[in-house]
Design goal:
- There is one protein chain.
- The chain has 305 residues and is mostly helical.
- The protein has a domain at 220-253.
- Helix content is 74%, strand content 0%.
- Helix 3 crosses helix 5 (112-125).
- The longest helix is centred in the middle third of the chain and has 42 residues, at 172-213.
- 7% of the residues are buried.
């Protein structure tokens, strides 16, 4: 019985259509379609390259470096030609009457926009002997340079971080990066200078406000200012007097220490007329000074100018 069931199941499975198998004829997979598109695009490029060689290669085998060098050369020639065209257009426009400009442009075969561009380039770079031989790309980088900066470049100096040599050998990206870095540096320097100026102005304003609202000095404050140098001079003179007295006392002791000196000799020394007079003056001055110090008072009278 089990053999019959197994045979029946096999027959059923054999009769069911299989979900796996070949795709119907005429249907192409996406992978194949992609490969065919790539091949067609490659063939098209090959045809375009062959056509370009026939039309513009002058019978020469394609060389990328050679073509790039020629492209740079003709760009410089085109730029110089544009400058010369601009010079002639400036001459024409400055000499001809008003209203003749547009008809003359039509006769030359140049539109107004190109003519304006040519005259602009001629005005900016036509007088600079070292800038006229630059290509279009370097000159486009200089569009926002001032006249003074262009003159610096023409004179061989640096302007905004670049030199004339940079314009000849660096790419546009490199030139823009150098200019941007120099501008940022100058911006930071200007900000620091402006900050320092603001701080000085704030201090000056603060001092001005203090002086404006400050009360005028009183007579006592003025007197204090006049007293200060007198106070210093008084202290110096008193100190000098003390020093002289100390030296005089040292001389006195020096006389007393002389070997063999007698009392009568020392008494006679002290009793000499000039010595007595000097000592008397010294005592008088001391007493007067002591009295003034103990009873010091102002000597000026109120109301006296």
């Amino acid at each position: 019985m089990s053999d019959v069931i197994e045979n029946a199941e096999y027959e059923v499975m054999e009769k069911q259509p299989s979900k796996r198998g070949r795709k119907p004829k005429g249907e192409i997979s996406k992978d194949v379609q992609g490969i065919e598109l790539i091949a067609a695009d490659f063939q098209k490029k090959q045809l375009n390259a062959q056509e370009a060689d026939e039309l513009y290669g002058n019978g020469e085998i394609y060389d990328r470096d050679s073509c790039m060098a020629k492209a740079r050369f003709f760009m410089r020639v085109a730029q110089e030609s544009l400058i010369e065209v601009g010079k002639q257009l400036i001459l024409i426009k400055s000499h001809e009457e008003h209203g003749a400009w547009y008809p003359l442009l039509d006769q030359i075969g140049i539109n107004y926009r190109t003519a304006s561009r040519a005259m602009h380039v001629a005005r900016r770079y036509g007088k600079s002997d070292k800038l006229t031989d630059l290509g279009y790309t370097p000159l486009s980088v200089l569009e926002d340079f001032t006249e003074d900066q262009l003159q610096d470049l023409n004179d061989g100096e640096e302007a905004r971080g670049i030199t004339i040599d940079d314009l000849h050998c660096r790419t546009k990206k490199e030139l823009i990066e150098k200019i941007k870095a120099d501008d940022e540096k100058n911006k930071r320097q200007r900000a620091a200078q402006e900050s320092a100026i603001r701080q000085k102005e704030e201090k000056l304003n603060e001092l001005e406000q203090k002086l404006r609202y400050r009360e005028p000095p009183t007579k006592k404050e003025l007197a204090e200012g006049q007293l200060e140098p007198i106070r210093r001079a008084f202290a110096t003179e008193v100190a000098s007097a003390v020093a002289y007295l100390e030296r005089a006392l040292a001389r006195l002791k020096e006389g007393q220490e002389i070997e063999g000196i007698e009392v009568d000799q020392l008494d006679a020394w002290m009793q000499e007329t000039w010595t007595a007079e000097v000592l008397g003056q010294l005592l008088d001055f001391y007493e007067t000074l002591e009295d003034e110090v103990q009873n010091i008072r102002p000597l000026w009278k109120p109301g006296r100018e």
